[in-house]
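Tutorial, part two.
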Amino acid sequence: MSLRDLNIRKFRTEDAKAVAKIITNSQMEVTPKAVLTLSNKRKMYVAVDDNRIVGTASIDYDTILGVFVDLQYRNQGVENALVRLLEEIAENNGFKHIKIEAGTDTAKLYEKLGYKAMDEVSSNELGEFTLMEKYLS
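Running the prediction step on this input gives:
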């Protein structure tokens, strides 16, 4: 699978079903209704390639949350593009420091993007993850 024309835009209500499918395929059950609820609590974005939603990520103040990419599009730069955009948004909103929740499969990627591990966290809802941080320029 190759990226033809990756575009990142704000989440729209009609994106809920596709976003829920991407998240569920990442082994975290979620419904379109739950996605809509989350989209009202934080700024959510989707990555679109050739009119198909291939990834999603959210930001809440200074924390990047819920970065998910379609299995067929992993390791092609989608996750990097989403994270970079959210870093830019945080910086444009005056934040000098940003955090991200990293699963065991994404911590190394975030390290390559300049993040450093802060804390190991365990929650009933999300399981275990590493809270990472990065100072913005």
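The CA atoms of residues 61 and 109 lie 22 Å apart. In part three we will examine how such features are distributed along the chain.
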